[in-house]
Design goal:
Shape: elongated
Order of helices and strands: HHEHEHEEH
Radius of gyration: 24 Å
Strand content: 25-35%
Largest sheet: 4 strands, mixed
Distance between the termini: 79 Å
CATH architecture of one domain: 2-Layer Sandwich
CATH topology of one domain: Translation Initiation Factor IF3
CATH superfamily of one domain: Hypothetical protein apc22750. Chain B
Strand order of the largest sheet: 1-3-4-2
């Protein structure tokens, strides 16, 4: 009986060794991490921080059927942040989101913004509320 159990166990282990599991978990996690690295700023804040313009970014979402999730601006803004990160930026000015009519969509929302790279020292000084000077207090 023990030999039979051993043989069946061995068969099951070797039979499943070629199974490959594929998911999009790495893309999902990567997107979550990228979007948390990007901060939202106003145009005035970017100007004060000496931000470098990288370009415009836009993203949209379409609800093709009633069983699909409705487009939400906060999800589309995450896509804008991922695109900003892919351009090498760390800051975005979200200009706005608007509902539009699109063929094949029950609901369609598009958001746009401008991607920037802000020097790291500016981000840390702003976060601490310190002035943007090259001098350090002792």
């Amino acid at each position: 009986m023990q030999r039979l159990i051993f043989a069946i166990s061995l068969f099951l282990l070797t039979g499943c060794s070629g199974i490959e599991l594929r998911t999009n978990a790495d893309q999902y996690i990567s997107g979550k991490v990228k979007s948390t690295l990007i901060k939202e700023y106003s145009f005035a804040e970017v100007h004060r921080s000496n931000g470098t313009l990288l370009g415009r970014v836009s993203a949209s979402s379409c609800q093709a059927s009633s069983s699909d999730e409705k487009p939400r601006p906060e999800n589309i803004k995450k896509l804008l942040k991922i695109k900003t990160h892919n351009l090498g930026g760390n800051a975005i000015v979200v200009e706005g989101c608007s509902a539009q009519v699109s063929a094949g969509c029950l609901e369609f929302i598009e958001c746009s913004g401008t991607a920037y790279a802000i020097p790291e020292h500016n981000e840390h000084q702003e976060a601490r509320g310190r002035p943007n000077t090259p001098y350090q207090a002792f």
